[in-house]
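Run log // design_07
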């Protein structure tokens, strides 16, 4: 293995964290410490990841919840496993049903975009297959923080306030009242450092732990979800929950300059990152801070998203030519379309999203790349009464156009933005990585990976480097620290640049890499409340 972060002693103002026995990296310190606690109790990387994930539904509810979806790449005893725990549209939800109610597109809030949540099933399945500790022990820290309360972290408070303002116009509608009662009991979002608690959330977590998620899909919680849906004209039913089954999948991979980069297959958008990397692999980049480097990155992402929008969907409903898309012939064709100036891609644009990512590793070499989400803000702005469970709005990614590959159909899973990543070399694992944030995610994956592989930045420096985000057409958002001379050069190439001061829009990531000596090095975003908990 050529990659060895030990040759880089520090990374700007934030240092890399090294550990031997285990490490957890995520966007919230309390959650990272919950995962580390499992390692010290004799658990493995999966136990640590699940404790962290459950805790994040409490301490960072702006990005995820019990009522969302989850995906995982796990390196366990020398093999990489993929898990898709995204839920389908309810059986009663269809284009004709929505047309009868006067919808010409799928709304962002309310019951219409609610699909079957997969997160509790992911926790139970990973725990059963790979975990060493009982789920009741793994979820105990999350239950504690939900019951006893915790001080809200600064970035979480900012995103919470932003979501509250987005939802404020719906405060008087009965179906949204449980959200305001749960997440804004004082008539506002909590301030940084203010204590927030949700005993109902704790009770739901306890039921999920004790029943290994059966309560959520076939028991008490499923009954409450069904009743809430029926009361307000929703489509989700207990039968939809009971029928849900997650899927173990074969990870997709491409080789980029000698490194094997793995993502999950569709309905995930990880394919977008792989398509872009294939295009970029055919170019030589002499320097990171060079207009040509950024130009090719941006154009490759545009090309990859064009293919992704055309082909990525639930493979049970669409014949997806994944192997053809990743072929050298297709890659050459797409690469030839990139010229010296910015081009105008087909219509459409990426969206923002709220997500959490975590990486965990143990002293046996097991490593987990895990991501879960309620999608945009808190999701649908619906909280199941008496449970604290915020339901996601993932169905917003469906289309009502019958000709669209993501056309809404009962039992179909939507296009999914959340993507965990993993890197290996010569059959040996290097480690998990991820960048959360809606359609920024594959763009973040490409930028961070190139920072590391092409430009020899260590993981922390790779995460902290200024980013760009393709928005639509020729429009590219840049962070305020993006070099001005490069921005001017890109504008001369036809790119339309705009500065976005909200750093969260550029993704928030974590990385754990294993050195050739078996030492872990880990990094977390400067754009979030992130923490690396190490042992």
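design_07 sequence
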């Amino acid at each position: 293995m050529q990659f060895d972060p030990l040759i880089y002693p520090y990374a700007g103002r934030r240092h890399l964290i090294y550990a031997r026995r285990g490490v957890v990296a995520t966007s919230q310190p309390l959650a990272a410490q919950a995962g580390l606690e499992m390692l010290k109790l004799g658990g493995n990387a999966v136990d640590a990841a699940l404790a962290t994930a459950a805790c994040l539904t409490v301490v960072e509810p702006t990005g995820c919840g019990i009522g969302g979806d989850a995906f995982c790449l796990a390196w366990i005893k020398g093999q990489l496993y993929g898990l898709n725990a995204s839920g389908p549209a309810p059986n009663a939800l269809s284009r004709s049903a929505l047309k009868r109610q006067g919808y010409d597109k799928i709304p962002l809030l309310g019951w219409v975009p609610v699909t079957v949540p997969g997160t509790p099933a992911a926790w139970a399945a990973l725990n059963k297959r790979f975990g060493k500790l009982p789920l009741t022990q793994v979820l105990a820290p999350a239950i504690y923080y939900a019951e006893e309360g915790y001080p809200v972290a600064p970035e979480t408070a900012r995103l919470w306030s932003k979501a509250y303002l987005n939802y404020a116009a719906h405060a008087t509608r009965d179906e949204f009242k449980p959200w305001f009662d749960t997440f804004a009991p004082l008539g506002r979002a909590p301030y940084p450092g203010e204590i927030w608690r949700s005993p109902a959330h704790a009770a739901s977590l306890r039921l999920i732990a004790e029943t290994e998620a059966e309560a959520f899909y076939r028991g008490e919680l499923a009954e409450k979800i069904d009743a809430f849906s029926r009361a307000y004209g929703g489509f989700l039913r207990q039968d939809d929950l009971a029928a849900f089954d997650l899927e173990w999948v074969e990870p997709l991979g491409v080789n980029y300059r000698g490194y094997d980069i793995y993502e999950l297959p569709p309905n995930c958008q990880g394919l977008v990152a792989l398509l872009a990397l294939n295009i970029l692999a055919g170019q030589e980049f002499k320097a990171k801070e060079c207009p040509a480097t950024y130009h090719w990155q941006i154009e490759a992402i545009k090309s990859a998203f064009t293919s992704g929008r055309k082909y990525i969907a639930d493979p049970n409903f669409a014949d997806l030519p994944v192997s053809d898309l990743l072929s050298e012939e297709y890659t050459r064709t797409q690469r030839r379309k990139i010229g010296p100036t910015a081009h105008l891609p087909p219509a459409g644009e990426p969206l923002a999203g709220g997500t959490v990512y975590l990486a965990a590793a143990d002293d046996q070499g097991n490593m987990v790349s895990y991501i879960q989400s309620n999608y945009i803000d808190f999701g649908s702005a619906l909280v199941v009464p008496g449970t604290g469970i915020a339901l996601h709005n993932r169905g917003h990614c469906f289309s009502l156009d019958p000709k669209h590959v993501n056309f809404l159909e009962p039992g179909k899973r939507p296009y999914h933005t959340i993507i965990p990543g993993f890197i290996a070399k010569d059959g040996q694992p290097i480690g998990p990585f991820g960048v959360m944030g809606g359609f920024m995610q594959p763009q973040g994956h490409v930028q961070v990976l190139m920072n590391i592989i092409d430009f020899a930045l260590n993981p922390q420096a790779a995460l902290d480097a200024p980013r760009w985000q393709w928005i639509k057409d020729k429009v590219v958002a840049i962070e305020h620290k993006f070099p001005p001379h490069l921005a001017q050069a890109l504008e001369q190439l036809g790119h339309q640049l705009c500065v976005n001061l909200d750093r969260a829009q550029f993704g928030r990531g974590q990385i754990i890499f294993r050195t050739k000596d078996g030492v872990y090095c880990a990094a977390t975003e400067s754009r979030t409340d992130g923490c690396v908990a190490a042992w």
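Residues 5-13 have pLDDT under 50 and may be disordered.
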